[in-house]
Amino acid sequence: MATLDQLKKHIEKAKSEAKSTLKSVDDPKKSPEARVKRKKVKRLQRKSAKIVAFQKNQEEKKKPKKERKSGASS
């Protein structure tokens, strides 16, 4: 599984590829190449967000249950 740092590098690379593709294409909204690049960036961003959320959830689970409930309501 990719680490968060690796994903950030991949996201930056994918964003730069997407920008260069958008510049080279006539109509970026209808271009299949540009669409694929944008989808890749979004997919990687969702993956990194999922990892961050999982890490926060793990930290929350380390706390006792009573503290978890009071922290959520605040």
Please tag this protein with its features:
3 helices; mainly alpha; elongated; 74 residues
Class derived from helix and strand content? mainly alpha
Q: Helix and strand string, N-terminal first?
A: HHH
The end-to-end span amounts to 34 Å
Helix content: over 70%
Radius of gyration: 18 Å
Number of helices: 3
Unreliable spans? none
Largest sheet, described in full? none
State mean pLDDT (0 to 100 scale).
88
- Overall geometry: elongated
Question: What is the total domain count?
Answer: 1
Describe the model:
The chain is mainly alpha-helical and 74 residues long. The chain has one domain. Helices cover 82% and strands 0% of the residues. The chain is elongated and about 60 Å long.
